[in-house]
Structures are given as C-alpha cells and as structure tokens.
Amino acid sequence: MKYERPAIEPPETGYVDLHSHYVPAVDDGVRSHEEGVSLCRGLAEAGFSMVVATPHIRTAMFENRRDPLGEAHRAFCAEAEGLPGMPVLGLGAEHYFDDVFWRLFEQGEALPYPGGKSALVELPRERLPHGLAQAFFRMKVAGVHPVLAHPERYRPFFESTDAMDPLLDVGALPLLDVMALTGKYGKAPQKAAERMLDEGVYYAACSDAHRPADALVVAEAIDLLEKRVGTEEKDFLLHHGPRDILAGTIED
Ligand SMILES: [Fe+2]
C-alpha cells in the first residue's frame, strides 16, 4: 500500500519539533509503543504541541523506506493519538545524504515533512560530501527546502561556520539539536552550537530525542537556549521557524 500523507497542520500555540525518533523499533529511537508514548508526552510537557517523527533512512544502517515507515507511524498513531497529554503527531524522515537518498528523492520516494515543502537531511560527521550544495540547490528548485540536521555535530563546522556559506547560499535551513547545549554530544558540538546561535545561523531548533529520558534534557536545553538568545529568538527557533519550514514560507 502506498503511503498517503495525512494533511496535518501545527496547532496555533506551542513549539513544533521537527526531529525526533518516537516510532517504535524502526531505528535507534524508542523500542516499544510505551516508550514512544512516554517520549511524546515528555516532549509535550517540555512545550511541544506538535512532534514530527524523523526515522533514519541510512544505507547499511537503517534500510527504511517511505511506505513501511508510513505504515509503522500510522499504527503508532492509531493507538497513541487519543491518549491524554499527547502532542499532534507527524512524519518525515532523517535522510542520510548519499546516492541512495538522491535516487529516492528524484523518484519521489523520500519522506519530506508533512506538507512536502521541506525535508530533513543528515550529513557525514567528518567531511562535507562532494556535490552537496548542488544537490541542495536542486532540491530547492524541485520545491523542497533542505533542512540541515544538527550542523553543530559536524567537524567542518566545529571551529568556523565558513564552510556552510555555500549551503546557506542555496537555501539550506540549519536545525539546532537543543540537547547539544547541555554538552550531551561533547564539548566541540556544544561550543559550535553556542557560536552558531550567536551568529544567528539557525532557522529552527528541535529535540532529536531518542528515549523518554531525553525529554527532561530537552526541557533543560530549552532553558539554556533562552538564556543564550533571549525569549524572542527562542520562540522564533521553536515556534515560528518550524512552522515556516512546514509551510515552505521561509524568511530571508
Ligand atoms: Fe536524529
């Protein structure tokens, strides 16, 4: 059965999380339905009124495809959505940038965010892939904004953001993983995240939560984010930015 994308809109209030792993047993995220529900409720308590699952699609590691992921998400939602304390649930994917991703994208088999206006892309940690800016440009031309997952975790951006300029020039939208601010991924990603926040590089922020226990770390990280950038910018990154990304209405 082909995955039919449900038409969902974010609620008017609350944060929108564009990166999380609450679909049970499809990647390195939660392992059970109960864990998935617990994670979603925890993120709702941290302030998220909508949480988009982004299971990994990564060759030789997580050989996921659109239709089975759509079915797994639909099955999770069928039991979870009516429970108290749940946010609105949506589905995208965290696409690892390689030839397979590109083939899936060109064949219309990738999993962009609900609404189809943007898609989440993960890069290798150590170096930027050849042809990345051209690929992002072609995504943009095809009407899909490339959203760059956790740039603070990639070595080329540890010390400087200069290497990101060609990607920003073609419309890449950097998405902060807020937990980086707590030092969860080490000192270098934490420092890079702080620097890129100071530089105003990010378009939005997310949880990238994989476990129910992550929700508490995310809440702590949102406090650190607010201390760093102030309430207005924190609200842009968690409220307006993600909604723009879903709607495809990107501010210059
Ligand atoms: Fe992720």
CATH hierarchy: architecture: Alpha-Beta Barrel
The amount of beta strand, in percent, is 5-15%
List the total number of helices.
8
Small-molecule binders: fe (ii) ion
The spatial strand order of the largest sheet comes to 3-5-6-7-8-9
Instruction: Give the structural class.
Output: alpha/beta
User: Roughly what is the average pLDDT, rounded to an integer?
Assistant: 95
What attributes does this structure have?
binds fe (ii) ion; alpha/beta; 252 residues; single chain
What does this structure look like?
This protein is α/β, with parallel strands linked by helices. It has a single domain (about 15-245), classed as TIM Barrel (Alpha-Beta Barrel). Helices cover about 40% and strands about 15% of the residues. The protein contains eight helices and nine strands. It has helices at about 35-45, 65-80, 100-105, 130-140, 165-170, 185-200, 215-230, 230-245; strands at about 15, 50-55, 55, 90, 95, 120, 145-150, 175, 205. It is globular. The chain starts with 14 loop residues before the first strand and ends in a 5-residue tail after the last helix. The structure holds fe (ii) ion. Fe (ii) ion binds near residues 21 and 208.
